[in-house]
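Researcher: Please predict.
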Amino acid sequence: MRALIVGGGGREHALAWKLQKDQPSIEIVAAPGNPGIAALGRCVAVSADDITGLVQLAIREKPQLVVIGPEAPLAAGLADALRTAGIPVFGPSRAAARIESSKAFAKALMREAGVPTARATRCVDAAAAKRAARELGAPVVVKASGLAAGKGVIVCETIAEADAAIDAMLTNDSFGAAGREVLVEEFMEGEELSLFAITDGTTVLPMLAAQDHKRLLEGDRGPNTGGMGAYAPVSLASDALVADAIDRVFIPTLDALRSAGAPFSGLLYAGLMLTSQGPKVVEFNARFGDPETEAILPLLESSLLDPLLAVAAGDELAGHELRWSSNHAVTIVVAAAGYPDKPRKGNTIELPPPEADVLVFHSGTAFGPEGELVTAGGRVFAVTGVASTLDAARSASARIAGEIQLEGKQLRRDIGWREQERGAGAPGN
């Protein structure tokens, strides 16, 4: 068995780790991979954005499974190109991946399908966007419609902040092509929940819900990032709530995509806001989220490989099930100095000795000229502690994250603070 994993971040490291745990004899090939994945398999220097190079690599390697990690190659049609070449791939088509690559498309699809979500106006003109912000009133949310590495959503407390966000996107081109179309969206009050589901386009196999922490600083302060940590499970995600989300969000969305001629198979991720009116969709992703994947997969006791193989082969998921540990997982992201605006690259890293209850997933690392480990991205590690309680998992994660030697590193030690305030995550809860 050979699996090709496209990408080189913490999500891909976690996927490689889990697939190898499911089948120890599996041969992992990663493109481009990272030093953490290199300890599990073979890394090939092909960029995740090089569609032609990746197809050629897959034809040479003949994997039984390709898993596409990042959003950009999905949006560029990598899954389509691999399927055309006869390669089994887990990931949606370019047309179906628009559920993530175009927030405007996703919003229109949800509106037509009756999926609960915030009111929003699509704008390509700054003056029209500012009028829309005033119609909704502050607080209001301004979103870049395209892919912006998790940083294209600005929650504006005042109209002045909304104007500045709109000008940044539509006038100053601060987000490039991703921000040339924006959504001015109603602000939703509540807690966010990340819910993943493996799907063949009809059957929905929900995974354990997680909660992400987007802000850079403790207490949910500072700028938005790609994610500074996550934890699972989340006590708010009852069986009834998940079942409701499947019925009112996932199934209608999959039906609407199929009706639009873009059937979806792969991993559909719904970012949900738990409002007083029930769960509403904040956004969809067309792939495993990061850093939630690093918190969820260590709790999956059943095989991930089996359902991924089934979907990649075009088989039905009916009959597959996922089994979960009763433990808790807390993932703390260790970020480079200067993240998220100008992360420092090339800084030397020293890791502490490994511990059985803590997994260190490489997110932004590389080998330096002397073979030393150095920073190569904004989010450098995702450190996951697993324990019988939330506090114990967070303590284990924070201890190892704190022992990583990296000049100017940034991390949050309050991951899961809402769960702690609820008194959840302790024995008996």
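Model: The chain has four domains: 2-91, 125-180, 191-312, 328-421.
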